[in-house]
Q: What sequence folds into this?
């Protein structure tokens, strides 16, 4: 158990809909990262938040947005969903500074299926 | 343009023998390289990392070798065990001014260790 929690575990929805994925980082971790893993693809970085502020953006679509709240949990909002958005979405957290191994701790993921 | 490449999608090894997983990268600015292991229906878990200033890091049965001139790293597992069967992701990271950047992942290599 990494200490990172993600809800829901599975999500099935229709095209055009909007969903929200939730992540709670490890206790004490200030940084939250979101990654997308599509079929046959590695994990693609979407966005990073540090202590409530956006720190870095990757290949995140304009239809997607995220935020990190004062209690450090984060939400990833996906709107106007398309079939191609079906994927595993992972959240990871890290201390941001002072980490020896620079590792990020991953949650179990949310599997999104768009029908 | 893929900055981190794992050219072997799968590898099959006999129990007790050595498993060698390879990874190539293109960006010479990466500071750290990490290996993650992923079981089905779980998030990736950190295995081992290496700083760009080192050429070898060892942790039990796992050793990572870095060849900066070739922009190549490899993960050796000796001896391989059936429980090592999983997908292994190579990842690279570039830190900015002491704060951690996002991970850039390869597409993974599925290792099967046969009893």
A:
């Amino acid at each position: 158990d990494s200490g990172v929690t993600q809800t829901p575990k599975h999500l099935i929805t229709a095209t055009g809909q909007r969903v929200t994925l939730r992540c709670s980082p490890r206790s004490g971790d200030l940084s939250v990262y979101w990654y997308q893993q599509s079929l046959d693809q590695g994990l693609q970085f979407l966005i990073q938040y540090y202590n409530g502020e956006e720190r870095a953006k990757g290949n995140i679509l304009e239809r997607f947005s995220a935020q990190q709240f004062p209690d450090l949990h984060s939400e990833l909002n996906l709107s106007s969903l398309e079939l191609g958005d079906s994927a595993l979405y992972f959240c990871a957290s890290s201390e941001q500074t002072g980490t020896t191994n620079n590792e990020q701790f991953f949650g179990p993921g949310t599997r999104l299926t768009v029908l | 343009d893929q900055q981190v490449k794992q050219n072997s999608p799968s590898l099959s090894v006999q129990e007790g023998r050595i498993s060698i997983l390879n990874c190539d990268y293109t960006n010479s600015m990466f500071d750290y390289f990490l290996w993650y292991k992923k079981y089905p229906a779980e998030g990736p878990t950190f295995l081992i990392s290496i700083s760009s200033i080192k050429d070898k890091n060892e942790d039990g049965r796992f050793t990572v070798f870095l060849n900066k001139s070739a922009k190549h790293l490899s993960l050796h597992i000796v001896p391989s065990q059936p429980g090592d069967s999983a997908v292994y992701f190579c990842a690279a990271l570039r830190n900015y001014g002491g704060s951690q950047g996002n991970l850039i992942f390869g597409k993974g290599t599925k290792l099967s260790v046969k009893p």
